[in-house]
């Protein structure tokens, strides 16, 4: 295997809009009995990647933190840009360096995310610097499913994203607090993330997609 580039692997003829899935090790091993946590993580990552890879007029990408994740890279299509960055601000900057004038960063545990929701974020950043899809929490904010932004990032947003990621529970509130005036970070429709075994009940067996996750969970009840 050849040495990986320090930050990004470029792609020829890239669209000016990028949608990148973030790949990070699972923070917990709360999975149904008999399911390997790493296999579930990769299945959800691949399904989420397939969502963004299927978007029209959008270049799909993968963001790695930590930078060496050959198993994650293996789920992508040939020629997919690979970004190696530890912060959302760094990932946005790297995608801008690849030619993106707008990008969406997507959590890796949303295998059934409707592509329309990412499209709504891209439409929103036509008139605002950034737009967020908040994760559905039971009673309170629970981080973000996706964050889109026009590039390059304004200074206030780049600064805020040094300390905020998609897992930050009050991410949307913190980004809005950093904005110089209201309305600069609109919110699109929320969606769920699958971070615990109990979250699997949110999957709809009748909904198309999430084929890898579906195959791995076959024979395991989705409700607790």
What would you note in describing this structure?
- The protein is α/β, with parallel strands linked by helices and 224 residues long.
- It has one domain (15-217): Spore Coat Polysaccharide Biosynthesis Protein SpsA, Chain A (Alpha-Beta Complex).
- It has helices at residues 37-53, 70-73, 88-97, 115-124, 155-160, 171-178, 211-217, and strands at residues 8-9, 17-23, 59-64, 82-84, 102-106, 130-134, 144-150.
- It has a seven-stranded mixed β-sheet, sandwiched between helices.
- Helix 1 runs antiparallel to helix 7 (211-217).
- The longest helix is centred in the first third of the chain and has 17 residues, at 37-53.
- The chain is globular.
Tell me the count of domains. Answer: 1
Shape: globular
CATH class group: Alpha Beta
How would you spell out the order of helices and strands? EEHEHEHEHEEHHH
Mean pLDDT: 89
**Which architecture would the CATH scheme give at its second level?**
Alpha-Beta Complex
Tally the beta strands: 7
Furnish the topology, listing elements before pairings:
Layout: E1 8-9, E2 17-23, H1 37-53, E3 59-64, H2 70-73, E4 82-84, H3 88-97, E5 102-106, H4 115-124, E6 130-134, E7 144-150, H5 155-160, H6 171-178, H7 211-217
Parallel strand pairs: 2-3, 2-5, 3-4
Antiparallel strand pairs: 1-4, 5-7, 6-7
